[in-house]
Each structure stands twice: as structure tokens, then as C-alpha cells.
Amino acid sequence: MTAIPYVGQELDLFAHARNWKSYWSFHICAYLTGDILEVGAGIGANTEILWNDRVSSWTCLEPDPALAERLRSRLKTRADLAACKVVVGTIETIGSNQQFDGVLYIDVLEHIADDRAELARASQILRPGGRIVVLAPAHQWLYTPFDRAIGHVRRYAKPALAACTPSDCKLERLNYLDSVGMLASLGNRLLLHQADPSIKQILFWDRFLVPLSRFADPISFHAIGKSILGIWKKG
Predict the structure, then answer these.
(1) pLDDT mean over 81-110
(2) Contact 80, 126 (CB under 8 A)
(3) If we measure between CA atoms, which residue out of 90, 84, 55 comes closest to residue 72?
(4) Which of 61, 119, 128, 228 is spaced 20 to 30 Å from 172 by Cα?
(5) What is the topology classification, in CATH, of domain 11-234?
(6) Is the pTM of this model over 0.90?
(7) Long-range contacts of 146-151 (CB under 8 A, 24+ apart)
(8) Highest mean pLDDT: which range of 84-98, 103-117, 138-152
(9) Is 162 in a helix, a strand, or coil?
């Protein structure tokens, strides 16, 4: 078992970003079917919104034992999620005999030093036709003390994320999300230099900027944004 304590303190804070979670989950829910592995599941805030009737099984993989225990407790409070399996470890903990229809990295891949090797390992436990889904912070020039404080190794532009494509997978989708929220990130990068956003800032972004991004992103053809979404299909 590989146990890795998580250095960030933002998971509870961003659990309040309900509009944002609703927005990005809308873009990936159609790809979630069959047996799903969620890498870096944290406290389960994303698991709750991604579970759907097309899912056969859901495995939450979390390297921090303390977070994994919180995750187990949280899942037990939801009858529909009580059967979710929680595994403490990294993708290397998952045996090669286990196969999945979807492997998710929701705000996780940016924490992993060797991201290309990580997705290559993910593809090895992915069934033909299955998908890898990555949501990550975009643009290295937006890297702030907050990124550093929560253990981000990098932020991604399209070429950098596309370069992580496993050899047996095809990149199906590569889009930016939250064009209006990118302005808030730029303000922090240039002016505030905060290592920790406040709850007021999170709620302002979530309640006012994210709804504007839902309108603006399609108009801009998802050409800009503070987050990036990549989806690969195996075979």
C-alpha cells in the first residue's frame, strides 16, 4: 500500500463550489458508465455528483489514509453510494487483473510528477473502449503561491496535456473551461499573490463567474479558461 499524506487544505473549501462542480460534471457524465476508478478521490465531494445509474461499480482511490477515512464515513451517509469501494494507495496499488471502463483524474494529475507514466498505467487497467478523463488547472502562467501550497507540480496548456496521451489511446476531447473565472485567477496571479483563497472569494467565483462562463465558453469555442478537460478513449 502506498500512503501519501495530502499537503493541501482546500478540499473542504472547494466543496462549496457547487455551480462549478455542476458545470464540469455536465461535460463528463455522458462518459461515465460501467466500472469506474476515481484516482485521488479526496473527501468524496466529486464522487457524490458523478455517480449515475449507468455506473456498475465505483472505486475511490485515495493515497492519504486520513482523507480515505473521511471518504468512507461520507459515503456511508448516502445509501446510493454505500457500495463504493475505497482503496488507500496510488494507481500502482491497483492490480493489473482489475479492469475499468473509466479512470478519472479530477484536479489530480497536476499533483503527479510523472504525469505521462501515470496515464500510461491508467490505460493498462482500462478496457477497450474505456475512457480516461482528466480535469486540471490550465496555463502555467497562472501558477500562483496557491498552486504551490497545495502541491501542484504544474498547470496545463493544450499541448502539454495532449503530450500525455497513452500510446494505446486516442485523444477525443481537449477543451478549456471557465473563461470568466480565468480573470479571477489572473487577478490573484498579478495582484493578490494569495496562498489561500477565502470562502468569500470562492463563493463569489462560484455564484457569479461560473454562470457567466457557462454562457461564454461555448461562444469562445472553449478556446480559453482556467481549467482544462481532456478525454481519451482506448482502442
Answers:
(1) 94
(2) no
(3) 84
(4) 61
(5) Rossmann fold (3.40.50)
(6) yes
(7) 146/10, 146/188, 146/194, 146/195, 146/196, 146/197, 147/110, 148/195, 149/7, 149/8, 149/195, 149/196, 150/7, 150/8, 150/9, 150/10, 151/6, 151/7, 151/8, 151/111
(8) 103-117
(9) helix
